[in-house]
Write a structure and sequence with these properties.
The structure is a homodimer of 433-residue chains. Chain A is 39% helix and 18% strand. The first copy, chain A, has 433 residues and is α/β, with parallel strands linked by helices. In chain A, the strands form three sheets. Chain A has an eight-stranded mixed beta sheet with strand order 1-5-6-11-10-9-7-8, with helices on both faces. Chain A starts with 16 loop residues before the first helix and ends with a strand. Chains A and B meet through α1, β1, β2, β3 and β4 of A and α1, β1, β2, β3 and β4 of B.
Chain lengths: 433, 433
């Protein structure tokens, strides 16, 4: 027999028991933490109709869809067959498309507001690169049907609690509002219909700096003063000071900005402030609480075009980019439903936080080392059963090779004790090492 | 805005919070139970190379593969393009193909025996029908590297424990061995190379009875005496009696049968007998134990061609067909590895057992009913935080409509108590109903 290639498909990976155990522990803690805020898990299929995935709101992700071929096609295609017609389904590239479809389909049977939690795999045919996979896990919470910023404040508090539950701290929240960005654009002389393009360029600020942003704006046909004025406004807004002083200055500098936007950001930051006060009090009482900080940052854009209100990112000092992000997208659910529905969500970058997470390693329990040829199988199983009573794990391991070497390997694997069974009756349980 | 079709793709389904909660509770109990036997979860990608999925061991499932199109194809295909070359990946239709690939790829880094647990979705493009879905969940345990029937006995004990942990009882185990079936075929006059075809027909016995089996055997060119003699042997083997008397008769009636086969079945049934004795004792001591029974049944075939030794099915009185099934497949892992590796596995039909499972419904905890326009968001969030301390869930619900109607709905949703907050300070917590 020839050995075949046995690797997983390019850009995907197999997960070993220790990795799955850590991921399951993290999922369990995140889900339990979110459940305490009333978020409830839903599940949708991995496959969606290709027309839904290609609805135009998925940004660059729509170029990365895994397309699934129709069943029952003729083996040989007719001349001039168009590739696009051969696929009727695709693998989802995020959990937002399925959520909006789910809500639109079931609105009458769901509470309002509806707090959804989704934890599951998504697929993107990206060029494989270190640490990025073509199948990865997203962990989203969304509140649908809540127009006020109590939704934003709660999503952020829930996410801070979830991250704290897996030991991911300290984190920093950066807050912005798409309407504040739009007002900055208007103030800088960007025509309303070019705001989207302007934001695509501004979104690169972290990577290319102001000089790069200004050059690209000019290259895209914006007047030279647009980049300058934008930099100036952002500089005035951001210059030192706490969130409330930034908001005061925004109200002064951007007369076209609705008062609602300022008030909303003020409410969210006040909620975060109260949360931290409570955390400090809890810490004084000896309860462990993870620390966090926050700032209003008028340069946060977030890629997707569908955001309509507040947007946020959560950062951790050891991670490039954010560990979580989201915002309000009031128009999106309505696209499927034919009426406006307020909605707001935040997504944890699961694979990033798993690496940071601190959870206890699994205890594999007792290794029952038995002499394979000397002890009948029913006796081995009965001995294991007696050791197993309660919730303790007991694994049967055939005795082989040097005792010390085998015990070291079992300890390394994660067993905490062993029992030797060389004949009809097992020996005493002994700790490993 | 027009309302779009918002259903999931044909043959798939969306899962609501109560359904997901039950499924997660069942998965958690099954996984915890299997972990006590030393089975450890692994995960592989949903996608596999199409050539691996089409390896010839997948039986009819290979006709049901969802094929994923290569990326970067020309928009218009050349004349005479063959459909089969357009797909390079496919969605897995079971968890056995990925497991054998995983083991072959990582053998050197895995313990021996390796006890694998897999719980995850698989996809088959079957014609949609009631209660069957194109995406469904499988829950498999497999022991790789254990040549003796201690593997079979442990897989069955583990599965009985797992089913008991979710309240699926009483169940009945039916046991057979592919080599016993082969000996029956030989005794009935089936040529060795036709054994596969013979088993395909015998597998229909449950549905079409002996008359149907005999007619189909004749129709497929087997001599008239083949069906008669097979029925006769099975009749003699099965006539009354406990497992050990069936095995004694098998040794007498089928002189070509290796002694190992009889001994192996005897060991498995003895282990099940000892397990039941212990369960009865535990029941006398007041510990709840689920009941089960077992039988050697020489007509069990199981569809897949790759089984080489013992095969088993687990049945529940309320389910047509089996709730779990599996067997030994010593040749399969070797196909990827280039050498023989003993292996044995059992799969729980997850969607079937979820319906039967008895798990407590989730308690949604406290509904904090707040007056939306009268209480500032930071105050509502702070009140929820105080109620939430500990592990209790607290959900914010805007107060609306008639009080009694809203409280009844909350009770119905699964909340156990509520707190009313009409101004700065919340009222007392009160039970619902």
């Amino acid at each position: 027999m020839a050995k075949l290639d046995t690797g997983p498909p390019r850009g995907t990976r197999d997960l070993f028991p220790d990795a799955v155990a850590k991921r399951e522990a993290v999922i369990s803690r995140l889900a339990d933490s979110y459940a305490r805020f009333g978020f409830r898990r839903i599940e949708t299929p991995a496959l969606e109709d290709i027309s839904r995935l290609s609805w135009g709101e998925g940004g660059d992700n729509e170029k990365l869809i895994y397309r699934v071929m129709r069943r029952g096609l003729d083996p040989v295609l007719a001349d001039g067959t168009n590739v696009s017609g051969l696929a009727d389904l695709g693998l989802r590239y995020d959990l937002t498309v399925p959520l909006t479809r789910f809500y639109a389909n079931n609105q009458g049977r769901l509470p309002s507001p509806f707090r959804a939690m989704q934890i599951g795999p998504v697929w993107r045919a990206e060029r494989p690169q270190k640490g990025r996979y073509r199948q990865f896990t997203q962990c989203d919470i969304d509140t649908i049907g809540e127009p006020s910023v109590i939704a934003e404040a709660e999503l952020l508090e829930g996410t801070l609690a979830a991250l704290a539950a897996i030991g991911v701290a300290p984190v920093r929240v950066r807050l912005n509002d798409r309407r504040l960005l739009a007002a900055i654009a208007t103030e800088a002389g960007v025509p309303a219909e070019a705001t989207g393009t302007f934001l695509v360029v501004l979104d690169k600020l972290d990577k290319i700096g102001w000089e790069g942003v200004k050059a690209e704006l000019a290259g895209r046909g914006f007047g030279a003063q647009v980049g300058e004025r934008c930099e100036g406004t952002v500089g005035l807004l951001s210059a030192g000071g706490d969130p409330s002083s930034i908001l005061e200055r925004a109200a002064d500098l951007l007369p076209g900005l609705e008062r609602d936007v300022i008030d909303g950001l003020a409410t969210t930051t006040e909620s975060l402030g109260r949360l931290r006060q409570d955390a400090v009090k809890a810490a004084e009482n000896g309860t462990t609480q993870e620390s966090f900080s926050w700032a209003v940052d008028p340069t946060i854009v977030r890629g997707m075009g569908y955001y309509t209100g507040q947007i946020f990112e959560v950062e951790h000092p050891e991670v490039n980019g954010s560990v979580a992000g989201g915002g309000r997208y009031d128009g999106l659910v309505g696209r499927s439903l034919g009426k406006e529905v307020p909605a707001c969500g935040i997504s944890i970058g699961f694979d990033r936080v798993v690496d940071l997470a601190v959870v206890p390693p699994p205890d594999l329990g007792v290794a029952l080392l038995y002499a394979r040829d000397a002890v009948p199988a029913p006796d081995v199983l009965a001995a294991a059963r007696r050791l197993r009573s309660g919730s303790r794990a007991v694994a049967l391991v055939p005795r082989r090779g040097q005792m010390r070497v085998q015990l070291d390997a079992l300890k390394e694997d994660g067993y905490s004790s062993f029992v030797l069974m060389e004949n009809g009756s097992p020996g005493e349980e002994r700790p490993l090492r």
